[in-house]
Amino acid sequence: MKRPLLLISVVAALALCASAQTYIDFHQMPLTNTPAPMPDNYPAVSGLAWDNFYYVTPGSWKEAGLGFWVDPASHHNTVAFIGGPYCNVPAACFGSIKLQRPGGDRPSFPTFTPVSISVAAGWLPNNVIVTAYDNSKFVGSLVWSLTTKPQTFAFPATWRVTQLVFTPEFIPTNPVYPRAGSMVVYSLVLTEP
């Protein structure tokens, strides 16, 4: 009798967790033919800050590289990105996604669990270093090898974080944008508390 009850409890808990996931893409962003800084609080009321990210509509931007995939069904699929021509100083070539500090006297930021992200390199294949923090405390890091074709990467299930930092590698022999790696974001899945 206890086993069926336990199984039902586990299934119910998994269903609750699955329904708490937030899928983020950029289809609600305005169409633009030149990159613009990614606004904070996108999507609405998410509380996410997008430091050093830009958004653009690849089908309208003539400088978009091969990694700015355009869906054949929709010529106007807006994406977010870091790097490439918008990254000329090696020390400043990174993008950060974090939850903003809530109001009041709370000393720490809220956490979220990153689940997965769909990304590509914008112009040429490169690596990107992903570093996770929980209120400035190092949680872990990963290195992903990006190509110009979209790939989906899963984050470690144990990560509860306040900030994700993405650092594209610099490629000294990159003839398009010397030294500048890049990362194009198509979608992000996360779970908030």
For the structure shown, list the relevant keywords.
single chain, 193 residues, mainly beta, Jelly Rolls, seven-stranded antiparallel sheet, five-stranded antiparallel sheet, globular, disordered N terminus
Topology at a glance:
Layout: H1 2-19, E1 21-24, E2 36-37, E3 48-51, E4 54-56, E5 79-83, E6 95-99, E7 113-120, E8 126-134, E9 137-146, E10 151-154, E11 163-168, E12 182-191
Antiparallel strand pairs: 1-12, 2-4, 3-6, 4-5, 5-12, 6-11, 7-10, 7-12, 8-9, 8-11
Overall 3D shape: globular
CATH fold assignment: Jelly Rolls
Give start-end ranges of low-pLDDT stretches.
Answer: 1-19
Sheet with the most strands? Answer: 7 strands, antiparallel
- β content, as a range? 35-45%
The number of strands is 12
Helix and strand composition category: mainly beta
Average residue pLDDT? 82
The CATH architecture is Sandwich
Compute the number of helices: 1
- Please identify the top-level CATH class: Mainly Beta
Distance between the termini: 32 Å
Helix content: under 10%
Radius of gyration: 18 Å
Order of helices and strands: HEEEEEEEEEEEE
Provide the domain count.
Answer: 1
